[in-house]
Every structure is written in structure tokens, then in C-alpha cells.
DNA sequence: CAGGTTGGTTGCGCAACACGCAACGTGCGT
DNA sequence: ACGCACGTTGCGTGTTGCGCAACCAACCTG
């Protein structure tokens, strides 16, 4: 919409791949050096990019502060966190929390059996949206047109033979997930990792977030993991209660 | 430099304080609604802001991804992390890692005795630059003109009676720190918290980062904490070796 | 050491683009 | 049902961001 702003923002993901010099940025943006410079300067003034000693630019530390603030404004996370920690302690497995936002699914919290961690590991990385249990839960609850639109626009990488192959398969699975109120990913992303997920619902009944329990095959079989499903669902329900209570919207 | 980009970027810290509606953003920016809208749209297209159900805007999840990438491009952190973890395990105290960037000091990693955590707690929050041990170390090694300029522009909040009161006091302490090669903060930020820090130097000998060890009074006295100084300095030296070896620049 | 190359910086004229106005929708509260 | 507050759209104007060209500085290379 706004040309210069758009160009400036396009620089950020570029720099996310690694530091780059002025010329490099200019050519990749398809603009004149001088234009790129003005944009970079403005970004620099606002702390979003930093100029390192060799005059190349990289992402700036201000992003930490913004991401931190963004995390704090996601109140689902605040509310869910203690529940997730407890679930992690009890089961000893990895717990994830994810939300859907603008055709993307993002992990926003993670609890390992021993490490309560934010912004770590997969948090901030793109979720395998076609196979992850949390993704299925979040997509399953989208309004029909958007769900279809998203499903059809996705790519379907075959991480493993059990990965969801295409849009029809995904939509079918989403229907099932919607029906049963929970989701699984048995080796669909990594051969040896199984995963079960449950939805967190807001006061309006819509799925506001999803949490999941993951464990490698070598620790527990898929069947054994499934025995934890009731516990996971109880946790999700507890979070839903807290969440819908506190955010009546 | 670039008006529209500057305005757009100014929106981000605004939203960091909490979600805001279009009108709110417009008035705080001092621009017409329609202008604010165009900027917000562009930010939205790039995932930096998200429009929640009530049509208000908040920071978007894409920021997580960018912050993550920013963190990964800070190779000091990568290199230092294992050392910090070890130090945390051995001493049982909290370890911080910080860098200086554009007149600000940022925590970029933290290790608690039990929790290795990134982007958590104070990471991303402004460092108490006038009192923190790591801040003193980083400021102490700035070139004279910049150091003076920074010191004089700072505010000197008296968190406690032991906080650094003004620029001359800070500059005096920086000189001492520079001399001795380590820094302390005994109750200067929070009455009951003591802290010691040591510099991490790059191949050129400049201080590239600083790490610190913090503990509350009730656990160890300042004197006891000081007995860990040699260990802290060894860790910092080890990181420096790794770092200067790997980044000959 | 001269000459070429690469990458960054500055000044300036032109027109594209971003700005704000005004008018239109829309949902909510009274 | 009405009015108000807030978000949205179309459009003319001139500010502002654009690219050109020329200028530096550093680094190779012969």
C-alpha cells in the first residue's frame, strides 16, 4: 500500500537471513543504492537494524524488545503458561502452545520437562502447518471459506511418508479433528516423533489456541502417548476456563 | 529520513504498550486517520502488526521470527551460551550476557541455575545502564568521546541509595572498571541483589560483550560472591578465546 | 605506485506517491 | 429510530521520496 514503508519492511526478512551490505540490499530490493540507504537509515534510527563494524547491516536489538512486548500482549500465553508447566512436569514430555494468525500458525510457548522456555527452539519458526497437531486444531476451527482457501494455497511437503499429502487429505482430517475435538501427528513431521493436541477455546467457543504434547518413539509409543490424551484435554479445558473467564470480550 | 517509514516504525513501540485502534494510533502519531490506516495496512501485510477481532491492532507474530533470526545472527551469543550454562551449573547463580548497541545495553542471553532461557525475563527489556555491572563494562570500553556523550545524556534514576547518582560518578567508575577489568553492582539496582561482571573481548581486544553473575543477598553475601570472580573471569576469558578465534574479522 | 574496481555518501531536479480532506458505511449506545 | 464514533473509500494537491550523476574511500592488481 505504502511503497516506501513496504520496501523498508521487506528489508527485515532479508537481513534475517544474515547481514548484508548496502549494495546487496539495494539490488535485492530492486531499487537504487541511495533509496536503500535512506530506508536503512530510517530503520536504523528506530533500532530495527544495526550497522556492524564492517558497515554491513543486520537486525537490531530493538526487535527483542518488540518481540518481548508482542509476547506479553498475547494473554493466552500468560494464562496458559502455568498449566503447561504443570502438564510438562506431570507427563515429562514437551508441551507446545500455538495460535493461528493470518494464515500462519505460530508457536508462542514451549515447556520442556525440565526447561520452561520462551522464544526458544521452534518458537518463532514456521510451524509445519500441514502436519502439526496444533495446526490441525487451529485450521479445523476456521470458518469454512478461509479454511478451504488456506488449505488450497498451502504446499504439502512430504516430511515423511505419513505427512499429509494434499489439500483434500488435510480437509478430511480437519473435519475429523473438528468432530473429535483433538488431533494427532504420528510421525508426520519427523519419523520418530509423535504428538497429540487439544484446543483451547475462548468465551465465544472458537478455538483461540492449541496445545500439544510431543514425545519421541523411543520414550513412549503412540499408544502410550494416547493414554495421556485425557490429561492433555483436561489441561486444555482448564486453560479454556481461565481464558474465557478472564477475557469475556 | 524517510517520513512515511519513520511514522510506520513509530507505530511499533506504540503498539508495544498495548493494542490500539486506528483513531488512537492516528492521533498519537499526529497524522490523519487515513494516513495511519495506510501505514498500518502495510505493516499488517508484512506481518508486523495483527488485527484482532475487535479491529484493534497489536504487534504481530512475525516479530517473533525476526527476533529469533536477530538472536541467531549474534554469534557471540551462540559461542558464549555453553560457557554460560556451565558457569550457571557450577555456581548455581544467575548468569547474564549483554551487548552494547547504539547507546543501549541489551541482555541477549540469560542462564538461571536450572533454566536455560532465551528471550525471557529481562531479555529485551532495557538494562539499568547506569548501574548494571555489564553496562559498566561495555560503556567503559567505548571510545572516549562516545562514552562521555552517552554518560552525559543518560538519566540517573536512584533505584537504591547505592545507585550511580550522576555522570561524573559513572565516568569515574568506568575508569576504575576499565583499569581492573571487571565490574560490580552491589545493590545499585535492587537493594538485595549483588552482581559481578567480566568483559568478553573480540580479536581486536575491544569489549564485544559482557557477562555477569547475580545473586540475592540472602543466598550469598557480596564478599562470598566476590570469591567467584576468578571463576567468572575464567569463563569470560574462555568465551573471548572462542569468540576471537572464530571471528577474526 | 598508478589505475581500476567495488561499495558507500552527497546534492539536486522531477514526478510519483503519500498526504489530508470530505463524503460514505457501519455498528453501538441511548 | 436516531446520533455518534470509528473505520473505509476516492480523489486532487504538493510534499517527499526517487534515481541520476558525481564524489570519496578502500581495496586489489598489475
What features would you describe in this structure?
Chain A is of the alpha+beta class. Chain A folds into 2 domains: 3-64, Arc Repressor Mutant, subunit A (Orthogonal Bundle); 74-246, 2-Layer Sandwich (Beta-Lactamase). The first copy, chain A, contains 10 helices and 8 strands. Chain A has helices at residues 3-16, 22-29, 33-45, 62-73, 75-91, 133-140, 144-153, 167-180, 222-226, 229-246, and strands spanning 49-51, 57-59, 94-101, 104-111, 116-117, 183-186, 193-201, 207-216. In chain A, the strands form 2 sheets. Chain A has a 6-stranded antiparallel beta sheet with strand order 5-4-3-8-7-6, with helices on both faces. Chain A has a two-stranded antiparallel sheet with strand order 1-2. In chain A, a hairpin with a 6-residue loop joins strand 6 (183-186) and strand 7 (193-201). In chain A, helix 5 packs antiparallel against helix 10 and helix 6 (133-140) packs across helix 8 (167-180). The longest helix of chain A has 18 residues, at 229-246. The two termini of chain A are 31 Å apart. The model of chain A has no long low-confidence stretch (mean pLDDT 88). At the A-B interface, helix 1, helix 3, helix 4, strand 4 and strand 5 of A face helix 1, helix 3, helix 4, strand 4 and strand 5 of B. Chain B binds a DNA duplex (30 and 30 nucleotides) through residues 1-5, 21-23, 31-35, 37-38, 55.
Amino acid at each position: 500500500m505504502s511503497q516506501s514503508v513496504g520496501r523498508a519492511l521487506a528489508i527485515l526478512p532479508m537481513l534475517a537471513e544474515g547481514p548484508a551490505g548496502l549494495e546487496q540490499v539495494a539490488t535485492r530490493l530492486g531499487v537504487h543504492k541511495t533509496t536503500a540507504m535512506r530506508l536503512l537509515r530510517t530503520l536504523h534510527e528506530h533500532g530495527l537494524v544495526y550497522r556492524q563494524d564492517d558497515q554491513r547491516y543486520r537486525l537490531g536489538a530493538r526487535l527483542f524488545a518488540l518481540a518481548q512486548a508482542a509476547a506479553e500482549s498475547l494473554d493466552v500465553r500468560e494464562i496458559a503458561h502455568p498449566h503447561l508447566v504443570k502438564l510438562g512436569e506431570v507427563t515429562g514430555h514437551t508441551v507446545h502452545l500455538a495460535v493461528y494468525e493470518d494464515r500462519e500458525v505460530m508457536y508462542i510457548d514451549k515447556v520442556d520437562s525440565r526447561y520452561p522456555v520462551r522464544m526458544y527452539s521452534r518458537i518463532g519458526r514456521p510451524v509445519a502447518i500441514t502436519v502439526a497437531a496444533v495446526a490441525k486444531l487451529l485450521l479445523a476451527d476456521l470458518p469454512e471459506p478461509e479454511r478451504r482457501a488456506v488449505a488450497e494455497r498451502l504446499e504439502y511437503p512430504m516430511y515423511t511418508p505419513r505427512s499429509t499429502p494434499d489439500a483434500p487429505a488435510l480437509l478430511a482430517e480437519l473435519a475429523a479433528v473438528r468432530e473429535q475435538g483433538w488431533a494427532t501427528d504420528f510421525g508426520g513431521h519427523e519419523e520418530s516423533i509423535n504428538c497429540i493436541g487439544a484446543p483451547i477455546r475462548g468465551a465465544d467457543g472458537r478455538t483461540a489456541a492449541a496445545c500439544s504434547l510431543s514425545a519421541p518413539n523411543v520414550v513412549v509409543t503412540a499408544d502410550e502417548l494416547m493414554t495421556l490424551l485425557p490429561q492433555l484435554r483436561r489441561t486444555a479445558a482448564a486453560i479454556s476456563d481461565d481464558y474465557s473467564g478472564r477475557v469475556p470480550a
